[in-house]
Design goal:
By secondary structure, the chain is mainly alpha-helical. It is 70% helix and 0% strand. The chain has two domains: 167 residues, no CATH class; 112 residues. It is globular and about 65 Å long.
Length: 279
Amino acid sequence: MWKTILALLVTIIVIPFLAFTMDTPLTAFQKEVLIDLLAVYLATALLCFVVSTISGNHSQVDKLWSLIPIVYVWMVAVHSGFEPRLVLMALLVTAWGLRLSYNFSRRGGYSWKFWTGEEDYRWAVLRAKPELRAQWRWTLFNLLFISLYQMGLILLITLPALRSLEGAPLGWTDYLIAALLLLFIVIETMADQQQWNYHKEKRKALATGGEIQNQYKKGFVHSGLWGLMRHPNYAAEQAIWIVFYFFSESISAEKYTDYAEYQKRVPRFLPFGKGKKLN
């Protein structure tokens, strides 16, 4: 358990360090915006820690998971003076966030008493483990992993917006990336809706006390997109943020005509298999 926690904590330090020191350095303006983003990150992470500790509900980060990325990307868009690419990215993240927030809300995730609401059952499972049963250990886990790590991860997945500051004008690659993002948002929406419909009909069948159809006897959705893979919604979620990263890559390709050839010949991080340098 602790090895896993340690590995997860390392990723939040090592991966950003590699990405931001071994790639094109941030400009002075990008560093200023990053400081603002980090301030929001620390404030929200500590707020989640305090509220979850007082209320005993450790799903505070879950409530912000789909909302804070919208804040981050629009912050960058505002700082940019509403550059077209940043506005496009912000609109796409807003569409993703509002859809996910709706799905979370209909499962009881939100409440007028913001500190209440449904808690993810996995936190109760983790609390019962011997490694985390002691109160001080659980408090430390709540601070480092649930609050700081998870909120940090949300910031990391939106940093391509920061990299896109002061970029080249919108090009055809941006529209292609936007189309792919919308496709994965649609797939994620379909997967969540199929899961919602299945469990809704299952609960209805159980409530009536009649004979339960074979498709509901298994207890979990296994048709539609769920018949193709076990976690289509999570797969689409990962694809969304991988594709979102392409926005920052497309800028270099459009700004420098030789960049595509450079990408083919020079590795991104490790200096292995390098070809000849460009003239």
